[in-house]
Design a protein that fits this description.
Two copies of one chain form a homodimer. Chain A is α/β, with parallel strands linked by helices and about 280 residues long. Helix content of chain A is about 30%, strand content about 30%.
Chain lengths: ~280, ~280
């Protein structure tokens, strides 16, 4: 028997992966959760049937979520908030920074963390026994609304803007993030695929702008198992920066172990293709 | 009835596209040729069942094949050779240069040109009635071997290194290209996917080096319908350049109509992710 998993990236296109077996299938109050063993990309986490991460290419997504904002601008990077990201990949990258005092992971669904801890150790390694990591199981918006000027960086590591994560793409939530950041804070938002979701990138830009972020920049990287194989992130700066400048604080021994990010990638990833630049105005 | 086309990028992974209809299916002496109408990516050209180009994303591949090498280093860019590329996309980008005197398209399979002219006008527009374009239906290696110091730029716009195109990835062919270029010439080779074909990129580097190119640089761009959604090209410089510098000669009115390439993309595309950099030494 051959078992193929197919995710449609639009009604008429998708990716298809041959699978060895289903490792876990279950349902929380929030969503359906599956872990599947694929032949080509290793273990794969699915939320409501959509690919969140595969062992083989998650390094691109998680490195590019974290390291650009952590190595920019000479402000403090001690207190960090991650909203979503219950698989642990983003936190795993963050704990590589000695300058970090504390990271709060605010994940709405405890089962995602539990399943990742049990079946995806490559992703969740930093979620257990790390006294700099605090896990809060709450609705991200409610949590962020209570915090004022507390964080140096906030990372929105959400799933797609349908269902549970929709609120994490709203201007109101971005405004709450704005106030939860200190005056030199930076917000990073995963902002979907430039191939399939340019309209979402535009909404993110508009939303960040309405929330008060004066300087908004997008960057991109190739993530093979995501729609279009090409992903984007938005960065909103609360401080006034004419042009974000590198301030590399990741220790060299950690930098040398990364799969995607380099100091050169940091700046080149902000260079957008003509069609993206044009669409974002 | 739903008709889905699936291309396997490895035995256990692939892309799948819903199709409206088959526009053409035929066979030349060289290969099987199909043109399919997909819903998401428009018309699609297949050679021996593999995706060569789709109307929706071919701009990335063809712009990134041509414009980086045409806007680098202050040497002449008058006489150009394209090997392969019978669909016409590469030539279409080249004729945007007023500085170009003549481009020779050397394609082994006349049927590819015929089918592209008939069914893919978006790609083949420059193949008809252009007195700067000369089409030669010959084996690329045999043609290149006869030329000495004639070309300012050579573009190897081949299919994958199996079957007819295998020879176009051989060190012997790269050596022939070396001698067919003038002393300041540049060779551009499509060098497959960093996700699935790192070993081919290594072979290309090794082959170009053995052929005599002293400075070899790779660059990348996202091409959604190609394996891994992420593609690479190698550039071999015959002249001595410490570091290739931009020399933008594409007229501004043409630049403004491009979908992917910009002067900033030119330099950022040479910045390679850590895993690619490491693999290529």
């Amino acid at each position: 028997m051959e078992l193929w998993f197919t995710e449609r990236h639009s009604p008429a296109s998708g990716i298809t992966l041959r699978c060895k077996r289903t490792i876990y299938s279950g349902r929380s109050d929030i969503q359906r959760i599956d872990v599947i063993e694929t032949e080509e990309f290793g273990r794969m986490l699915l939320l409501d049937g959509l690919v969140m991460a595969t062992e083989r290419d998650e390094f691109v997504y998680h490195e590019m979520m974290v390291h650009p904002a952590m190595n920019l601008t000479p402000a403090s990077r001690k207190r960090i908030l991650v909203v979503g990201g219950g698989d642990g990949g983003t936190v795993r990258e963050l704990v590589k920074y000695p300058c970090l005092d504390n990271v709060v992971l605010c994940e709405i669904d405890p089962l995602v963390v539990e399943i990742s801890r049990r079946y995806l150790p490559q992703l969740s390694s930093a979620l257990a026994d790390n006294d700099r990591v605090e896990i809060v199981f709450r609705d991200g918006q409610a949590y962020v609304r209570e915090r004022k000027g507390e964080f140096d960086r906030i990372f929105i590591d959400s799933s797609d803007p349908i269902g549970a994560a929709e609120v994490l793409f709203s201007p109101g939530f971005y405004k709450d993030c704005y106030f939860a950041l200190n005056n030199e804070g930076v917000l990073v938002v995963q902002s979907e695929s430039p191939i399939y979701h340019l309209h979402i990138m535009k909404q993110v830009k508009e939303g960040l702008s309405r929330a008060g972020f004066t300087n908004i920049r997008f960057y991109t990287a190739p993530v093979p198992t995501y729609p279009g194989g090409y992903w984007s992130w938005a960065m909103g700066f609360k401080g006034i920066y004419e042009r974000p400048s590198p301030d590399i604080v990741l220790p060299l021994e950690e930098m040398e172990k990364l799969g995607f990010f380099t100091p050169e990638v940091l700046m080149s990833s902000f260079v957008l293709p003509a069609f993206v630049k044009r669409a974002l105005g």
